[in-house]
Predict the structure.
Amino acid sequence: MNELIKDADKRMKKSTDVLKTEFHGLRTGRASTILVEDIKVDYYGTITPIKQLAQISVPEATQIAIQPWDISVVPNIEKAIRNSDLGAQPQTDGNVIRINLPPLTEERRKEMVKKAGKMAEQARIAIRNIRHEIMKDIDNLKKEGGISEDEIKKLKDELQKTTDKHIKQIDELLKKKEEEILTV
């Protein structure tokens, strides 16, 4: 029976981990390689993340440098960056693409906070859906018999505690990300 709770916890943790990864891609006031490494580029007909095509570095607090291993892909990387929601224009300097990140405006910061809130809500929904599925499994155990009412109640309580734990983690992640975004 406890396997149901372990399975729920494992699946809920995955949802929380996905949110953490999504939050890394949200721009705060500082440059980070994470902002561009997963931007998809058309590389000879194959959609490939920048991190597989180039070395990415942060030479300054507000600048990202991308040095492709294949120089012929520079225009494609520039185009992918322009089409992304990064909000910055790439500049090519020989074989190096530089992205100077302008300071975030108050309006842009508020947009980012809203976006973070939406991401967090999607993660909460995923966790509630997992809880709902496991509740159905527990109810099926009840119908099949062989398990006492007390054990059913204990399983449901345990599932709710696990759900609450993960929702709390999401709320903490959101709060931390909002502070990062809003701190000038």
User: Anything to note?
Assistant: Strands lie at 40-43, 46-49, 54-60, 63-68, 90-93, 96-100. The mean pLDDT is 87. The chain has five helices and six strands.
